[in-house]
Amino acid sequence: MAALAAFTGLSLQTDRPIPFGCSIVNTKTGELLLRARNAVAREFDPSSHAEVRAIRLATKRLKSVSLSGYTLYTTCEPCPMCMSAALWASLDRVVFGATIEDCNRHCRQIQIPATEVAARSDMHCIVDGPVLHDVCYALFTHPNMLKAFSTWSTSKQATANK
């Protein structure tokens, strides 16, 4: 998780900072398969969350719709869309840092915990978190990120100003 937070944090020094990052690793060996960041604004795609992007890239790389044998690490608790994608991909485990509540302080969020999405499914996936919460939440509170949030159409502040 620390390596993922560091990778994600690299974006904080760019003109498009993003606090949402994701890694997919082999559950048994810990070998990194790939990393991805949220690309909603860059790709003009509201489904281009880090977790969904990582799942799409991983299944293409492995030429399989199943990611059984892999664990997804994410800097923020997956939203219902992302957790559903993790379930459909048959991931073994999802580990998150910051929580949905943390995220919702800065931008809009569907406030259904990942554990609830998993529990209401007939698919099995372990959900762990928060892990390294303070490290991951620091991505959201970095001054460059706070400035960027104020320009997002999905930010709490931008929505309140309409």
Estimate the strand proportion: 15-25%
* Major sheet size, sense and barrel closure: 5 strands, mixed
Coarse shape: globular
Give start-end ranges of low-pLDDT stretches.
Answer: none
User: Span from first to last CA?
Assistant: 36 Å
Strand order of the largest sheet: 2-1-3-4-5
Write the layout of secondary structure elements.
Blueprint: H1 2-9, E1 21-26, E2 32-37, H2 40-43, H3 50-62, E3 70-76, H4 80-88, E4 93-98, H5 100-104, H6 114-119, E5 126-128, H7 133-141, H8 143-149, H9 156-160
Parallel strand pairs: 3-4, 4-5
Antiparallel strand pairs: 1-2, 1-3
Protein described:
- The protein is α/β, with parallel strands linked by helices and 162 residues long.
- Helix content is 41%, strand content 17%.
- Strands 2-1-3-4-5 form a 5-stranded mixed β-sheet, sandwiched between helices.
- Helix 4 links the parallel strand 3 and strand 4.
- Helix 3 runs parallel beside helix 4.
- The N and C termini lie far apart (36 Å).
Quick overview:
This protein is an alpha/beta fold. It has helices at 2-9, 40-43, 50-62, 80-88, 100-104, 114-119, 133-141, 143-149, 156-160, and strands spanning 21-26, 32-37, 70-76, 93-98, 126-128. It contains 9 helices and 5 strands.
Keywords:
globular; 162 residues; 5-stranded mixed beta sheet; alpha/beta
